[in-house]
Amino acid sequence: MDLIYSNDRREDIGLLTDYRFDLAFGKDENDFEVTIPATEHCCGPGYFLYIPGTEYGGIIDTVYVNTAEGDIVYKGRTWHGLLESKVVQPAAGEDYLTLTGDANALLGQLIELLGLGELFEAEAAESGLRVSGYRMNRYIKAYEGTRKMLASVGGKLRVTFTDGKVRLAAAPRSMPVDVDDLDSDDIDIE
Question: Which of 56, 152, 168, 178 is the most exposed place for a label (fewest CB within 10 A)?
Answer without folding.
Answer: 178
